[in-house]
Design brief:
Layout (H helix, E strand, L loop, with lengths): L15 E3 L3 H25 L7 E5 L6 H14 L4 E5 L4 H9 L7 E5 L11 E9 L3 E5 L13 E3 L6 H12 L9 E3 L3 H10 L4 E4 L6 H8 L4 E3 L5 H7 L3 E6 L15 E13 L4 H15 L23 H9 L3 H5 L2 H55 L7 H16 L2 E3 L3 H27 L19
Parallel strand pairs: 1-13, 2-3, 2-4, 7-8, 7-9
Antiparallel strand pairs: 4-12, 5-12, 6-9, 6-10, 11-12
Helix pairs in contact: 1-11, 2-8, 5-6, 11-12, 11-13, 12-13
Keywords: Membrane, Transmembrane, Transmembrane helix
Protein name: C4-dicarboxylate ABC transporter substrate-binding protein
Pfam families: NMT1_3
């Protein structure tokens, strides 16, 4: 029996046994780490930053219904640490223009229907309708039930930029009345228009939410000789202009003692929408709708309790966040936690998703990948060993014994130089036993061949077949 030092160099065991193969570990971890980084980056990219603490709303003239509503929003939002800057404006038209202009530092606006013609409103979304803003036509003289009856008269339609003016021009045009014709259209609005009507400087005044105040409306209702027009064609207007609604004011709704109005009055009204840029933070969307619900959710002479805010929209698409709110209400976190804590928790949850969905399964896969990497080096030589044995056993093989032995020795030498973790030493030695088994079988087949007088050529070159059959 020969010692190891007398054996050929390629037969000596030079394998390196290590606690762990860092190269295999790096290759196994690499794809997982890359996928995890990509997942976390995507989550961070998708997660919106914390809600801003200051937002700006374009309302209307000071004292108008738009302005008053905005002031109430401001008080409600302050409870959650949000500062609402309220800007005065000429009205709905100017509010839309400000929102459409990215250079303007405006996030929100109160906008009545029918005022955005000619303005590029891409990128603007609605948080829902918040209240009615009826077009109220007050007049002097003989009974008027149609706008066409005002042809040739003096009409106050509101100043430039107001929703009252934009809507008035649209409705008057539908009745054949346009600027430059026989009808005089003046830019009076709000209190100024009411006083001009009382003083007889105009024959009619068309007022709506962004230019009229409650006291102004009440003053006109109680002024002798001034009447509120009953729209006889109200139903036709709502068919022609889909953003309009028909409302009926019952007898005595303004003053029961004086029975004002003395008869039911039909009016037409757009809804006022809370419009925002589509970049508005989702958490603020919920907070604003909640504020609108508190301000506009009660019953009054124009609406039922709970009717507003609503998903009823006309010129602007409802935002995804608002649609979700109207369908299912506030999110779970915002229902049970203070606003800022819920906002933080909401973002943390989104960041945890890739950890739960990607990282945990991925790191559970790492041991399997590591094991496969180590075993694959052993399996590679099993493949070479099987190929060699099949070649030797093939009936039509012409491979010489010495060539096969030389290849087998090369396989053994390569195996003996492998770097193998200690945990896989048993499989390493099993492979070496199998190499020995193939060598023993090859030697036996060679001995049988020699006994039959069919010794291999001495030069070791490829000759005739030396092994036949199994």
């Amino acid at each position: 029996m020969t010692t190891d030092s007398n054996q050929p160099a390629h037969r000596r065991l030079r394998a390196r046994f290590v606690a762990i193969s860092w190269r295999d570990l790096a290759v196994s971890f690499g794809p997982v780490v890359l996928v995890s980084i990509a997942a976390i980056w995507l989550a961070v990219w998708l997660v919106k930053p914390a809600p801003p603490r200051t937002v700006t709303l374009s309302a209307g003239p000071e004292g108008s219904s738009f302005w008053n509503a905005a002031q109430r929003y401001k008080t409600i939002l302050a409870r959650d640490g949000i500062t609402l800057n309220v800007l005065t404006s000429e009205g709905s038209r100017q509010n839309v223009e400000r929102l459409a202009d990215e250079k303007q530092n405006v996030d929100l606006g109160l906008v009545q229907g029918g005022v955005s013609q000619g303005i590029d409103v891409d990128g603007l979304v609605s948080l829902g309708s918040v209240f009615y803003a009826p077009i109220s036509v007050f007049y002097r003289g003989a009974r008027v039930t149609k706008l066409s009856d005002l042809a040739g008269k003096r009409i106050a339609i509101g100043r430039e930029g107001s929703g009252a003016r934009a809507l008035s021009l649209t409705l008057l045009k539908a009745n054949g009345i346009e600027p430059g014709g026989a009808t005089t259209l003046t830019a009076y609005d709000g209190q100024e228009a009411a006083q001009a009507l009382i003083d007889g400087r105009v024959d009619a005044a068309m007022l709506t939410g962004d230019t009229a105040t409650g006291p102004t409306m009440g003053k006109l209702i109680r002024t002798a000789g001034v009447h509120l027009m009953d729209f006889a064609q109200a139903d036709a207007y709502t068919r022609r202009f889909t953003y309009l609604n028909q409302l009926t004011l019952p007898r005595g709704v303004f003053d029961l003692g004086r029975n004002l109005p003395a008869q039911p009055v039909h009016v037409i009204s757009p809804t006022v929408e809370l419009v925002a840029r589509d970049s508005l933070h989702p958490a603020l969307s919920d907070l604003l709708i909640e504020a609108a619900k508190e301000v506009h959710g009660k019953a009054n002479v124009l609406q039922r309790a709970g009717e507003f805010p609503s998903a009823q929209v006309h010129e602007f698409p409802i935002s995804d966040d608002a649609a979700r709110y109207y369908q299912s209400g506030k999110g779970f976190l915002y229902r049970h936690l203070p606003f800022w804590i819920a906002s933080l928790a909401d973002r943390i949850v989104v960041l945890l998703v890739p950890i739960i969905v990607v990282l945990i399964p991925a790191f559970r896969l790492v041991p399997s990948l590591y094991s496969w990497r180590v075993k694959s080096r052993l399996y590679r030589w099993y493949g070479a060993l099987i190929a060699l044995e099949r070649e030797a056993l093939a009936d039509d093989a012409h491979t010489e014994y010495r060539n096969l032995r030389h290849r087998l020795d090369a396989i053994e030498a390569a195996v003996n130089r492998l770097k193998i973790p200690l945990a896989y030493a048993d499989q390493f030695y099993v492979l070496r036993e199998h190499i020995g088994f193939v060598r023993h079988r090859l030697d036996a087949m060679n001995a049988e061949s020699n006994a039959a007088g069919d010794a291999p050529p001495a030069d070791g070159k490829r000759g005739e077949e030396v092994v036949r059959g199994a």
